[in-house]
Amino acid sequence: MTGPVEVRCMLMRGGTSKGAYFLAEDLPAEPALRDELLLRVMGSPDERQIDGLGGAHPLSSKVAVVSPSSDPDADVDYLFLQVAFDRPKVSDRQNCGNILAGVGPFAVERGLVPAGEERTSVRIRMVNTGDFAAATFPTPGGRVDYTGDAEISGVPGSAAPVVIEFPPGTGKLLPTGNVREVIDGIPVTCVDNGMPTVLIPAAALDVTGYEAPRDLEENLVLAGRLRELRLTAGKLMGLGDVSDSTVPKLTLLAPPRDGGAVTTRTFIPVRCHTSIGVLGAASVAAGLRVEGGVGADLAELPADGDRVRIEHPTGFLDIESSLGTDSAGLPTARRTAVVRTARKIFDGTVFPRSTETAPLPAPTPGGAR
């Protein structure tokens, strides 16, 4: 190829993330070719992603690939891709519940699902895991309306609410089969309610759990302990070798400070999230309700109702969460729902970096920025 190609693209904010949304038909069908194109679209590898759409952070270097679904229980398929900014890697090993918030509106905008006169519900199959979700949002007059008074922490201003319901999954809520595990002397609870997550008492790692994300990232002793813990937990959770994967997520738990159920600091997997992912919060909320789990002594759960408020570095996220039990008496997720917002930022054509342009070398530690 001698020059850049044109690709139809919509840039959207979904929840507290931002990503490029594509129809599957507008991208190469071969995964290797698709990923190579997306690296050039996002400007990777480059710590600034200066030559592409990416925002030089895991929360703003994301891609959604949407297509009509052949599954009778879904209207559209949604494939989430995490595009690394510091290396030439595209991963499909996890879902993203924040980017999910924009999938329904995008499907209507692209004509995959007809809009209702007042509201529209889109049934979504999350290709990464095979799980399902239903997103409901306002479409007055048959057009997506992004304006509204719903506010979520980590996003300035307000927008129209996108209500996302997650039906109970078929997988184990406790992937290891145990309420608690002890890894390198650290008690943890491994839970998967849409996102494989390891719950860890912050105090067990000699931190408070109230630190700023950057301070936690710069704690090299903590980083080393978290890495080893994640590698071991990944194997226990049936995920295999996770050294080159973004899952499982690690969430540090501390008692709440601002009226919520618990305070969290989540690693994704190396950077500390400035808020918390939707599916990660769903797993945390479910994990807090597991009797005997590591969050049981830390969380202040409401006396009634399903709503659990998860505190994070920039505010909170409310999750509707309830548990049941299976035939063996083990806890299972019964209901999970969340309110998010999304906004279309631009809709048009993106021009990927030419293949004739060599990628920038990897950044040198301590070098100029």
Automatic annotation (TrEMBL):
<dbReference type="GO" id="GO:0016853">
    <property type="term" value="F:isomerase activity"/>
</dbReference>
<dbReference type="InterPro" id="IPR047687">
    <property type="entry name" value="OMA_tautomer-like"/>
</dbReference>
<dbReference type="InterPro" id="IPR007400">
    <property type="entry name" value="PrpF-like"/>
</dbReference>
<protein>
    <submittedName>
        <fullName>4-oxalomesaconate tautomerase</fullName>
    </submittedName>
</protein>
<dbReference type="Pfam" id="PF04303">
    <property type="entry name" value="PrpF"/>
</dbReference>
<keyword id="KW-0413">Isomerase</keyword>
<comment type="similarity">
    <text>Belongs to the PrpF family.</text>
</comment>
